[in-house]
UniProtKB/TrEMBL annotation:
Lineage: Eukaryota, Metazoa, Chordata, Craniata, Vertebrata
Top-tier EC class: translocase
Positions of transmembrane segments: 59-76, 96-115, 152-171, 178-196, 202-220, 240-258, 270-294
The protein's name in its UniProt record: NADH-ubiquinone oxidoreductase chain 2
EC assignment: 7.1.1.2
Catalytic activity from the UniProt record: a ubiquinone + NADH + 5 H(+)(in) = a ubiquinol + NAD(+) + 4 H(+)(out)
Domain NADH:quinone oxidoreductase/Mrp antiporter transmembrane: 25-288
Keyword Methyltransferase included in the entry's annotation: no
Summary of the function given for this chain in its UniProt record: Core subunit of the mitochondrial membrane respiratory chain NADH dehydrogenase (Complex I) which catalyzes electron transfer from NADH through the respiratory chain, using ubiquinone as an electron acceptor. Essential for the catalytic activity and assembly of complex I.
Organism: Anolis cristatellus
GO CC entries: mitochondrial inner membrane
Residue span(s) of domain NADH dehydrogenase subunit 2 C-terminal: 290-315
Protein's cellular compartments: Mitochondrion inner membrane
Length: 315
């Protein structure tokens, strides 16, 4: 792609997110979300390959449907309350519709099926943008409306996302699909805590963004598209292998590392709110994700390429 066009598209992407994050009127928030969607479509379809075209089409359809649902819910609210203010969502049916629309926008289960397909059809840098930057605008809308969103729906969405994200990642060999399911599982943790304590949700989002950025940059540097590729990363850079190992274990939420802190605080807060069955289910679902990350860690750091079968050394 022409560098000038690429720069304009990236600026449009940034503008869309900033417009949504800084708006108080539902129409402006919708404009920001649409700008975001339209800017990422050419980035996904730059390869001119059937897989990337399919991914761009799937992404466009799901995001357009979610944006339309958001606009529809805000119109119902404005019709009943007389205000377009984002923080004044007081009509119950529109709140339910909004939470489902944001779930579709983010890729929370059970509306998560588009995310792994889209990431698999994109290049690694594009998948990185979709898994990180594209989550900011919908999360900011959740942050602004969380006092009115139905907490039961958010808790259920969070639990199903965490479970399906961990379980579905177990039988994957493609790193982009593993990262997609990782994103679904982490967003589940954020959805669970959103209606209880917003500060922990923001911290969870920031930690997720940092760790996912680190891992995606490692995968881009080592050109690792499958688990088989990660086993030969040591031939490129030993330091990169150590960084990948620590990042993967941190994403899994092992105690001495950064990724454990948000999970710990979420579980503590759930227990404080007397949601002990929910806390137990979330902790059990984290084990599924951890197994997935440990398998990737094992193939990256604990196997040396010539000693394993069916591996091709990079040099």
């Amino acid at each position: 792609m022409n560098p000038t066009i690429y720069t304009i598209i990236l600026l449009s992407l940034a503008t869309g997110t900033i417009v949504t994050m800084t708006s108080f009127h539902w129409l402006m928030a919708w404009v920001g979300l649409e700008l975001n969607t339209l800017a990422i479509i050419p980035i996904i379809s730059t390869l001119h390959h059937p897989r990337s075209t399919e991914a761009a089409t799937k992404y466009f359809l799901t995001q357009a449907a979610a944006s339309a649902m958001i606009l529809f819910s805000s119109m119902i609210n404005a019709w009943n309350t007389g205000t377009w203010d984002i923080t004044q969502m007081s009509y119950a049916p529109s709140n339910i519709l909004l939470s489902l629309a944001l779930a579709l926008k983010l890729g929370l289960a059970p509306a998560h099926f588009w995310l792994p397909e889209v990431l698999q059809g994109s290049t690694l840098p594009t998948a990185f943008i979709i898994a990180t930057w594209q989550k900011l605008a919908p999360m900011s809308l959740i942050y602004m409306t969380m006092n009115n969103l139905p907490s039961t729906i958010l808790l259920m969405l969070g639990l199903t996302s965490s479970t399906s994200g961990g379980g579905s990642g177990l039988n994957q060999t493609q790193t982009r699909k593993i990262m997609a399911y990782s994103s679904i599982a982490h967003l589940g943790w954020m959805a669970v805590i959103a209606s209880i304590m917003s500060n922990i949700m923001i911290m969870n989002l920031l930690v997720y963004l940092m760790m996912t950025t680190a891992l995606f940059l490692s995968l881009i540097c080592s050109k690792s598209k499958t688990i088989q590729d990660t086993a030969t990363t040591w031939t490129t850079s030993r330091t990169l292998v150590i960084i990948m190992m620590l990042t993967l274990l941190s994403l899994g939420g092992l105690p001495p590392l950064t990724g454990f802190l948000p999970k710990w605080l979420v579980l503590e807060e759930l227990i404080m709110q007397n949601l002990i069955p929910m806390a137990t289910a979330m902790a059990m679902s984290a084990l599924l994700s951890l197994f997935c990350y440990l398998r990737l860690t094992y193939s990256t750091t604990l196997t040396l390429s010539p000693n394993t079968l069916q591996m091709k050394v990079k040099w």
